[in-house]
């Protein structure tokens, strides 16, 4: 029996309002709603022992979104927790999601026109392993930090036979498309 790892299937994100979350991912990343579950009928032991959530919380809704050709996004809306803000990327447990786009400048222009809160950028990395990486961070209405980036190749590729995974573009650890 082997334990082959295929790749990242989905990233789960808790949002304060699932309809707002869906609308955001549709507007920003062209997400397609694949399916939605509605409320879960589970007990407190399930919430605590299976999900690591507060035993007093409940799942109001869950939706799976497909965003382009990459990893899917799973949105949760819970009840029973105090409102909180997402952690900053500098805090332990903080994180961000990065979506590869064709042209970060075109995406930045489109997102600003939509009223999306953009941080400073885009920024092109000119040296080092990330040379060629053009990126900008943005903020979801509930505070989650996201990133859009574009690149043709990265600096590390000159010194390593390994390749980062790219949706439908390059087979990892190969120098050519397959």
From TrEMBL:
Keywords, sorted A to Z: Dioxygenase, Metal-binding, Oxidoreductase
InterPro entries: Glyas_Bleomycin-R_OHBP_Dase, MMCE/EMCE_epimerase, VOC_core
Pfam families: Glyoxalase_4
Domain VOC: 7-151
PROSITE patterns hit by this protein: VOC (PS51819)
SUPFAM superfamilies per UniProt: Glyoxalase/Bleomycin resistance protein/Dihydroxybiphenyl dioxygenase
GO terms for biological process, alphabetical: L-methylmalonyl-CoA metabolic process
One term of GO molecular function: methylmalonyl-CoA epimerase activity
Protein name in UniProt: Catechol 2,3-dioxygenase
Source organism of this protein record: Rhizobium lusitanum
């Amino acid at each position: 029996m082997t334990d082959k790892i295929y790749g990242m299937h989905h990233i789960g994100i808790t949002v304060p309002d699932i309809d707002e979350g869906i609308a955001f991912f549709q507007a920003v990343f062209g997400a397609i709603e694949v399916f939605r579950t509605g409320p879960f009928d589970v007990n407190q032991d399930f919430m605590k022992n299976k999900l690591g959530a507060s035993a007093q919380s409940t799942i109001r809704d869950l939706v799976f979104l497909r965003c382009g050709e990459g990893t899917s996004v799973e949105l949760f809306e819970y009840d029973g927790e105090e409102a909180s803000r997402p952690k900053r990327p500098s805090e332990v447990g903080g994180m961000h999601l990065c979506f590869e786009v064709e042209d970060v400048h075109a995406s930045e222009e489109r997102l600003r026109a939509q009223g999306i809160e953009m941080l400073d950028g885009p920024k092109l990395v000119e040296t080092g392993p990330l040379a060629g990486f053009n990126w900008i961070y943005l903020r979801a209405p509930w505070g989650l930090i996201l990133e859009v980036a574009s690149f043709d190749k990265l600096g590390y590729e000159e010194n390593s036979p390994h390749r980062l995974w790219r949706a439908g573009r390059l087979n990892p650890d190969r120098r050519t498309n397959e």
